[in-house]
Amino acid sequence: MTTDGAPKEDGGGPVTALTERGEDITPKKDRGVLKIIKRVGNEDERPMIGDKVHVHYKGKLSNGKKFDSSRDRNEPFVFSLGKGQVIKAWDIGVATMKKGEICQLLCKPEYAYGAAGSIPKIPSNATLFFEIELLDFKGEDLFEDGGIIRRIKQKGEGYSNPNEGATVEIHLEGCCSGRTFDCRDVAFVVGEGEDHDIPLGIDKALEKMQREEQCILHLSPRYGFGEAGKPKFDIEPNAKLIYEVTLKSFEKAKESWEMDTKEKLEQAAIVKEKGTVYFKGGKYMQAVIQYGKIVSWLEMEYGLSEHESKASESFLLAAFLNLAMCYLKLREYPRTIECCEKALGLDGANEKGLYRRGKARLLMNEFDLAIEDFERVLKVNPQNRAARLQISVCQRKAKEHNERDRKVYANMFKKFAERDAKVEEASNLRDSACQKGEGDEAMDDKDMDGHV
User: Fold this and answer.
1) What are the Acidic residues biased-composition ranges (predicted)?
2) Which residue among the candidates 111, 130, 225, 291 is catalytic per the annotation?
């Protein structure tokens, strides 16, 4: 078994070419990773840290023996760049490539599998040869909903991130449709960026960033300035935004376990008021952040005095009811129901909890369940005219819904009947033709017998 890292191919081979003419692309310039471009890429942009990259490759030992190939599997290999998911040589080499580029890399053991190797295919201290084609790359989807795509230009320091409520100092530049609309240094509390004309997506992304990290954020309207836009910056409704953000410094907020019950209750009162201000201003996602803090602080708090228990329950009930209202506005009906049920777990006859759950069920076309909720509201408060009206709405919509279903099924059955009739007609024609064919065949036999 070869353990020597030196190339073993004779002159003229790719390993020899890389050794002699390859570009040293290592940060240390120690010739640990050498590169030759075989086909130039077709775009100027290169992948960044955290990008999902798609590549085809084949790998050989320095003696020319192939040990792996994505092309043999006919399946591209996908990994996140700069996250340690592949050998160091790949993180270094692929970062230098452009889309469509094919390159060859010669990787010394310290940038590959080192002394351990990757038995049985790759021996100890092996120098490796790769040919790589960069097929595609795209930014990191931070919340896997397409709303915030991050591309890291400069990796941050350490392993700590700002949390919700942390005080941060950042530099940001905002662009929309190729126009820079914002460029400044600003300090604020994570979760309250809206107070400084900073969209929600920045708040959310900061919780994933490290000190001194510099990244590009692509924000969908949901995480940008939404349906309202931002007249101050001349941003139209539902605009997509691009921000370049540098996290210069931050001071983390106290975590729940670092706060005593008295402090949690004091903070709950503060964030409840902040949430209400956001809600009244139509900033429902920002309000969700504030009300959510109350839940994270108090939902699992135990061993409270009678006074603390009552105060905690009161804050939690208000938080769940307000969250339910926010999610109604955001059209997130399953989450509305979830929050209402949490509220009803604290107060089973809560009028607002029953009404908001009924409203969400109505909007999900769950008419029978919605009627049950509105009827329970009337048992709690017979004077609730809104609930009585909603029952009528449910009954009307259920009737309309059933009528639509009846028409759909009637049309469906009509089409099935027409199709069956056509099939039967075609079958009858085939049977008729077969019978005629059998008669002709019998006549032919008779004629033949006559001739014989």
Assistant:
1) 440-452
2) 130
Name the 3-class secondary structure at 211.
Answer: strand
Which of 4, 36, 68, 79 is flagged as catalytic? 68
pLDDT score recorded for residue 404: 76
Candidate from 1-10, 18-27, 294-303 with smallest mean pLDDT: 1-10
Which domains does the chain carry?
Answer: 16-138 (3.10.50.40), 148-251 (3.10.50.40), 261-397 (1.25.40.10)
User: Catalytic pick from 25, 49, 57, 391?
Assistant: 57
- Choose the weakest-confidence range: 177-181, 372-376, 424-428: 424-428
Which DSSP symbol is given to 228? G
Q: In what order do the strands lie in the sheet with 167-176?
A: 140-141, 148-154, 214-219, 241-251, 167-176, 179-189
Helices and strands, counts by H and E, the chain? 11, 13
What is 79-106 written as a DSSP string?
EETTTTSS-HHHHHHHTT--TT-EEEEE
Q: State the DSSP string of 106-128.
A: EE-GGGTTTTT-BTTTB-TT--E
Annotated catalytic residue within 111, 113, 279, 367 = 113
Q: Confirm whether 130 is a catalytic residue.
A: yes
Please report the pLDDT score of residue 402 as a whole number. Answer: 81
Q: Give the residue among 82, 214, 213 at the shortest CA–CA distance from 156.
A: 213
Which range among 104-108, 186-190, 262-266, 409-413 shows the weakest confidence by mean pLDDT? 409-413
Give the model confidence (pLDDT) of 256-296 as tens digits: 999 999 999 999 999 999 999 999 999 999 999 999 999 99
Contact 146, 224 (CB under 8 A): no
**For 3-23, b where at least 16 C-beta lie within 10 A, e where not — what string?**
eebebebeeebbbbbbbeebe
Q: Which amino acid is at 309?
A: S
Active-site choice (87, 170, 235, 337): 87
> Which tokens hold the place of 131?
């040919």
Question: How high is the mean pLDDT of the chain?
Answer: 90
Active site (annotated) includes residue 67: yes
Q: Which of 36, 67, 195, 347 is catalytic?
A: 67
The radius of gyration of the chain from alpha carbons, rounded to an integer in Å, stands at 34
